[in-house]
Hints:
Strand order of the largest sheet: 1-2-3-4-5
CATH architecture: 3-Layer(aba) Sandwich
Number of strands: 5
Strand content: 15-25%
Order of helices and strands: HHEHEEHEHEH
Shape: globular
Structural class: alpha/beta
Amino acid sequence: MTDELVANASVAEVTESAIATMIARGLITPTKQTTRKKVNWERLLAYEYVEKFYQGIPHWFRLEVGPMPNGSTDLIYSKTRRWADCVIHLPDHTLVIEFKMKAEPAVVSQLIHYGQLVPQTPMLVKYKDLPVKIKVVAAMVDDVTHAFIESQGIDVEIYKPTNFEQWYKQVILREK
């Protein structure tokens, strides 16, 4: 990866993180659409959670994880890479978090795979020797799924964001 690509990726990450922080703090709101746009509930959950518990700690949202084949930056490859919801650099480990409004068993394979890819991510090469921990943060999860996820060595944390009631009514109850 060239220095210019790394610099551009870093600027984009800092910009996205700053915007996410301002949204989470209520300083700015996303532009309103005249047509009803699909809400990315999990992204809002991620911004709020990280702002509350990891403020001031290096973190990246929607980070492409894994190696770049032979330094390739082809657009087609960017469409096939894996995207971790959030990667947080802590002093003694790297934490990969997958955010779900409602956790399902499929999150297990997703997170295990991301955990394996993080040390191979060019942008995180300086942290490659740190242990990687994986975690699900969900607004809701049934007991069986919760037990299954934890049985695979993945931490589960229940966190209900401020938009939980709105999500529950709109998505689960299908109210408008």
